Amino acid sequence: MQWDSLKLFLAIAGSGSLAAAARTLDVNHSTVFRRLNAFEEELGGRVFERVATGYQLTPLGEEVLARARDIQHAMDDLERAVLGKDIQPKGVVKITAPNNIAYRFLPRYLGDFHKRYPEIRLEIFVSNLEFNMSNRQADIAVRATDAPPEHLIGRRIVDLRWSVYASEKLSKKKRPVSMQDLKDHALIGASGGMKNLKAYRAMDAKYADSVRIRCDDMVSMAHFAEAGAGLAVLPADEARKGIVRLFDFEPVVVSKLWLLTHPDLRHTERIRLVMEELAAAFQKDKDLLSP
Q1: Would the pLDDT of 89 be above 80?
Q2: Do residues 211 and 182 lie in contact, with contact meaning Cβ atoms separated by under 8 Å?
């Protein structure tokens, strides 16, 4: 039995569809279909029932899944152990970062990285979701969090202070000068999961009646503020042309930005080089420093 066959099986079991498994494995749909049929023929039984909602495990599939996961964990451990001893500055480094960091900061920090290390290739995954760093979905995660996952290691690289921002077009005479003035202005609030962030909880507790627009994304909030739709409360990394910082949000809110990786990969040369490059760039970026 080939390990690739088990990886295919795990991808289908995890997603419930051939199309999603094909995207995960970076192959086409027909290849997944053909290899699944070959795998089931090799086993002598069906591991999936083809139903209207996708692919569901059969009793045989459930048994295979439990054993395949054990094998997957062993293979992941082996791969990380081997990579952890890699002292050559070459190979692929996968970085996951939230959209604003990926759009505005990583290109500036890593745009010419390949000139110094031509054999290191970078893959950027734009997401704020938790990636599985045990099986190398990502090697480095840039995350704003007060509590990094205990199974990862890293460094706290910068503290991002939250402030109130307004459109540059709003005349200075009409700009609020303190938190007490916010009740007299239209505000841009949070929706969805963003409402659970400390700053937006505090905003809703005191100024909910002044919120005119809600977004579940800070980049969108910044653009609405630029358009003059209201005042936005944002961390320092969201500051951009078109909006101006007015004053600190109160109560004071600070987001801690971390660079994280798996402990087994900390001595891998290419990952170490990228982490050091990012840490140095973040820490000296004037756009992120508190006023």
Answers
A1: yes
A2: no
Q: What are phi and psi of 244, to 5 degrees?
A: -125, 145
Residues sharing a CB contact under 8 Å with residue 269, sequence separation 6 or more, in sequence order: 86, 87, 88, 89
Please give the Cα distance from 142 to 155 (Å, whole number): 10
**Nearest-angstrom CA–CA distance, 262 and 128:** 17
Q: What is the distance between the alpha carbons of residues 143 and 278, in angstroms, rounded to a whole number?
A: 13
131-141 residue pLDDT tens = 666 556 889 99
**Contact of 163 with 251, CB cutoff 8 Å:** no
pLDDT tens digits along 148-172? 888 889 999 999 999 999 999 999 9
Measured distance CA(205)–CA(138) in Å, rounded: 37
Q: What are phi and psi of 165, to 5 degrees?
A: -125, 150
Q: Is the preceding omega at residue 235 within 30 degrees of 0, hence cis?
A: no
Residue whose C-alpha is closest to residue 7's, from 240, 86, 177, 22? 22
